[in-house]
C-alpha cells in the first residue's frame, strides 16, 4: 500500500493525471487494508479533481471492506450508496462469499430474487459453491431453481457441481 501511494504521488508530481482505474485500485486497497479514512479522503480528492466514483469504484470498496474483515462497514457503505446498481449487490454477495458469510449472501440473493432481480451469474456461481461446501443442498437447490424461474440458465459447471453434490449426498430424486 505504501508503494502504491508513493507511485500515486510520483505520478501527480510528474504531471500525470490519475485515471479512474488508478483510483479504483487505490480505493480497493485502502478498503481491504482498513484505511477507511484514507479511502474517503481519496474519494473526496478524486471528486475535487473532476472524477466521479463509478460502480466499479463502489464494488472495489465493498469487496475490499469485506476482504479486510469489515463486513458491517461494507453493508453500511452499500446501504448509503445513492443510485445502487445490480453490480453493487453482486459485489456484496461476492464479498460475503469470500469471507465465509454464506448465510448473509444467500439472504441477500433471496431478497433480491423475491423482487424479481437476479445478480450476476458469476456471483450466483460463487454462492452455489459456498452453499455446496457447507453441504447446504436445500438452499443450493433454491438458488438453482430461482435462477431458472428468473430466466437465467445456470452454467454447465453449476449443473455439474449441484449434480455431484446431490449424488454424493445420495439425494438421487
Features:
single chain; 0% strand; 173 residues; mainly alpha
Strand percentage lies at under 5%
Shape, principal axes of CA atoms: elongated
Weakly predicted, low-confidence segments:
none
Number of strands: 0
Radius of gyration: 19 Å
Total number of helices: 10
- Give the termini distance in whole angstroms: 52 Å
Element order: H for helix, E for strand: HHHHHHHHHH
Helix content: over 70%
Mean pLDDT: 93
Chart the SSEs and their pairings.
Elements: H1 2-13, H2 20-32, H3 36-48, H4 55-67, H5 71-80, H6 86-98, H7 102-114, H8 121-133, H9 137-149, H10 156-168
Helix pairs in contact: 2-3, 2-4, 4-5, 4-6, 5-6, 6-7, 6-8, 7-8, 7-9, 8-9, 8-10, 9-10
Give a written overview of the molecule.
The protein is mainly α and 173 residues long. It is 73% helix and 0% strand. The chain is built from ten helices and no strands. The chain has helices spanning 2-13, 20-32, 36-48, 55-67, 71-80, 86-98, 102-114, 121-133, 137-149, 156-168. Helix 2 (20-32) packs parallel to helix 4. The longest helix is centred in the N-terminal third of the chain and has 13 residues, at 20-32. The N and C termini lie far apart (52 Å). The model has no long low-confidence stretch (mean pLDDT 93).
Amino acid at each position: 500500500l505504501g508503494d502504491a501511494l508513493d507511485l500515486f504521488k510520483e505520478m501527480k508530481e510528474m504531471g500525470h493525471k490519475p485515471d479512474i482505474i488508478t483510483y479504483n485500485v487505490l480505493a480497493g486497497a485502502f478498503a481491504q487494508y482498513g484505511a477507511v479514512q484514507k479511502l474517503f479522503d481519496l474519494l473526496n480528492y478524486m471528486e475535487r479533481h473532476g472524477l466521479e466514483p463509478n460502480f466499479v469504484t463502489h464494488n472495489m470498496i465493498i469487496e475490499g471492506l469485506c476482504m479486510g474483515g469489515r463486513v458491517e462497514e461494507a453493508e453500511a457503505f452499500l446501504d448509503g450508496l445513492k443510485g445502487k446498481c445490480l453490480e453493487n449487490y453482486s459485489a456484496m454477495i461476492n464479498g460475503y462469499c469470500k469471507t465465509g458469510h454464506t448465510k448473509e449472501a444467500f439472504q441477500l440473493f433471496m431478497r433480491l430474487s423475491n423482487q424479481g432481480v437476479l445478480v450476476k451469474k458469476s456471483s450466483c456461481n460463487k454462492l452455489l459453491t459456498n452453499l455446496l461446501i457447507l453441504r447446504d443442498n436445500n438452499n443450493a437447490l433454491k438458488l438453482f431453481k430461482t435462477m431458472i424461474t428468473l430466466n437465467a440458465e445456470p452454467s454447465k459447471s453449476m449443473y455439474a457441481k449441484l449434480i455431484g453434490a446431490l449424488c454424493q449426498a445420495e439425494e438421487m430424486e
